[in-house]
Amino acid sequence: MSSTNPGFDKKMRPAGEMYVWLCGMGLAAGIIMVLGLLWIIIANGVEVFWPRTVYEIKFKDGSVVAASIVEDREKKVAEEGGEIKHEYKLFTGNKDVSAQFRYVDHDSIESMEVADGIWMADREGSGKAVFYPIELVLTDGTTISADSPDFMPEMQRLIDEAEKARHEAEEIDRGPIRDYAAKNKKLTFEIRLLQNNNLEQRKELQAMDEIYSRMIMLDDSAADARQDFQTQYDEFAARGGPFAELKDIHARSTALRAEYQHYFDESDALKASINNGTLRYQVVGGPEREYVSGQMLKVYQPNEFSAIDKVLFFITHFWLFVSEEPREGATEGGIFPAIFGTFVMTVLMSAAVMPFGVLAAIYLREYAAQGLFTQAVRIAVNNLAGVPSIVYGVFGLGFFIYGMGSWIDSGAEDPMAVALWIVWLVVALVILGFVIVLAQEHIWRTVSWMPDKPRQQAVSFLSIIFIIILGCLIYYSPFFHGFFADRAMLNEPTFGSGGVLWASLTLALMTVPVVVVATEEALAAVPRGVREASLACGASKWQTIQRIVMPASASGILTGLILAMARGAGEVAPLMLVGVINAVDELPIDGTYPFFHFERKFEHMGFHIYHLGFQSPDSEAAKPMVFATTFLLILLVVVLNLGAILIRDHLRKKYATGTF
User: Fold this and answer.
1) Beta bridge partner(s), residue 122
2) What does each C-alpha distance from 622 to 68, 102, 316, 334, 521 come to in angstroms?
3) What is the pLDDT of residues 513-534, one digit of tens each?
């Protein structure tokens, strides 16, 4: 009887090879989707900065318009049996004359030629203009025709002078005048507080304040009326008491105004100098127009640009977009406040989430008994990662703003009685004493009637009780009445309203599950032999964690931070409840003491995108800005993550011998 040995068949494929290809296909599909998304964002965002060719388009009905082509697309016409036709989306500018965008069929166009000599201008307050210049009229009556060789240099000189004056006026407005506004606001609070503390004379105090406000508005030509007001004002002031206090505040207000008056005069003079000439121009297919030359931010001839000019134009406009503040309802100008606000919020969020998440993970993995309770906590942390972000926003609004913020402003709304507070303080100190005694390992090591496990559980339980009681003692303290009680009493909350601090903490709470899970996995991956070797050398458990486990798991911990930053920087929904707004006058960090103003509201790039896309009055004009802002948001997240990745790689190389 013979037997056959099949041996090794060279044509037989290894088992499971097909699944390797499926994994590769999954990765390829993911990469294609990511690249496709980036291509759409970049291609549409670049349109904001790249100069388009302007055409003079003549229609079959005899009308004519100068416009650039934004999009050439197909449309299905239901009235003609679903026939496919082509149409242009045109940008005509001149929104003070007609709509900026038009949709026209290819069939309606008789001719379309590049418009020679056409101009475009970015205007302050009126968007872009597309026109043929006629002449420039200076303030001394001199007229310079558009055909003159002096026209363009003179026009540019006026724009440069206006830009310089505008910049100097902004410096004054943001410096001394903003300082005056802050000081004057404090005096206004003093007046309101005085009225609020003297309810019986409140109406008379308000009348006296009203008389003062009218009196300072009068100039020398209304001397009689001013004298009448002064007489009435002196009668109030003669009553003494709170009226004398109000007079003193008014005197300080007058002195403050006199101290800063020359800044107001200088700012007004600079703003008036912007009106340094008038440009007359012809809108294609429209009327002749006039516009103050100084209110034109930039003029250029896009059809005369060479390739190098277009590149320089692109770079210049990109930089202005990054560095300037928004204009025209955020459809023009830059997004610097949004970039700065997003950066500050992300850094604060990272600073808050890292220690909290890492410490929680260390306790869960290294110290907590792996029982039912620990498993329940771990499951709860994992599930928190799936909670909708808006829920965190509602929690932040209730806990941070209405709870902690109001407490910081004015203390507890219903403080505890002093005697009861002292009793609970004694209870807390007793519990703390028990915790300290039970936590002394060297004392209990030789005590047989106290096993380690129930003692450690008792320490954990009593620690939680102590923290809860301590929190209640602080929150309901009868000795703390807030840092900004006066402002809170006048319904002017400081930390009791949304701000960048509360927004950062809300996002830190939202992203802490990511850090906890990543840190736990990194700690668990450290080989057990490394820990045992450290303990065998005489190191304590904490020394082992601090000097062996943490360095070895640093790269995994930073990976969790990178994921948290990526998620937190792009969130919008919770921020709408805890501090983000569309436009701010002041940044969270500036040169005004104390320099860090974490109670201030801020702009965020994600919210900026939402506002442009769904709240903008001109959605078509805002569409390229949406893509450009999205591109910069992705760029900011990449830069922040890149910094964390570089730190992670450095730590990985430094502790290479301890890695897993």
Assistant:
1) 128, 298
2) 16, 15, 20, 12, 44
3) 999 999 999 999 888 888 899 9
